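**Backbone shape codes:**
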Amino acid sequence: MSAGTDTSATYRRGMTEHVTITPSILYFGTPVVLLSTENADGTTNLAPMSSAWALGETVVLGLGSEGHSARNLGQRPELVINLPGPRLWPQVEALAPLTGRDPVPAAKRDVFRFEPDKFGAAGLHPEPAELVRPSRVAQCPIQLEATAIQVRPAAHGSFTIIEARVLRVHCAPELVVPGTQHVDPQRWSPLIYNFRHYFGLGPELGHTFRSQTRPSAQLAQ
């Protein structure tokens, strides 16, 4: 290295400066899920959530312990993980202040209200599942029928962690790569919950070396 070179400046080139903050939430951008669970009377409760991620055929969900969905899954393990697209954000938000618990838990009374018919309140339509009892959301392009294999309290906070095994995947035909079992990432855009704001996906930036689907035409050039 030549004399007089500022090594610290070279190291910092292209780096981002940071400040320390204490945000009230850590919703840094995850897909929205409309979660179908079974009520005690056999009807379906529907709730929006954004703490969900997948490993293989297992989906891990994080729910508030006082919510009706967590209570349902503690007693009846079947569920449907419905994935809405960006255009359904108004319906998702219509569900946000509603709860299936009656009476409403004390911690929620200032913000939430009891609603027994979540589908009707949000303008959504139920359709029967094939392997589980809770209904699917007809308007959601991707639906995962599943069963909870573990329901446990989180190590910290009033949350419940659910590990769910996916039993069957339903997908809108136009989102499937023809002749394959793959969802086309060029056509599927999940609804993203980003620090309590709703977003869709932007154009593709790239793909992992393990991808089994083709990149966008622009990237392939």
